[in-house]
Specification:
The protein is about 45% helix and about 10% strand. By secondary structure, the protein is α/β, with parallel strands linked by helices. Helix 2 links the parallel strand 2 and strand 3.
Length: about 200
Amino acid sequence: MVVNPSIPAKTVPEFIAYAKANSGNVHFGSGGIGSLLHVCGELFKRMAGVDLVHVPYRGSAPAITALLGGQVQVVFDTMGPSIENIRAGKLRALAVTTMTRSEALPDIPIMSDFVPGYEASLFLGIGAPKNTPAEIVAKLNTEVNAALADPKIKARLADVGNAPLALSPADFGKLLADETEKWGKVVKFTGAKPD
């Protein structure tokens, strides 16, 4: 969760108070209707009980540009596109939306400290066609997890605010099912449809 430095809030509780005091006048940018950035903002609105106006853009970069220019006041983005602007003081990070602090910005608190139960994580995974033999899936899983354990890869991922999540195929399948259910509820609540 990043804000334009012109916003007086320096913490999530201060932002919530600011948003409530300026109900309907605080805008959050996203990478488009139905995007991860959009549903993360909608989840925050619902769980924090604030009225933010959604402003969809065609991608994360235009949303961050609008945030830097003050056209929107907050963006719920992945760390990669905004980390250098945070480090340079051009944007203020109020919280990470993962369940643990980021190694790249360890002083930034986690959202669930202020909005209990809030968690939003972007993850990437590798899939294979449905009928891929189990031994090939197991071999791919072993090799990918070994790469994720490599100190150079871990360091590079951490530098841009990412953390490897080495899972078994069964655990990754469960993660996909759980995340689909969670975000499906948010999408239904908002009525969001992709651009």
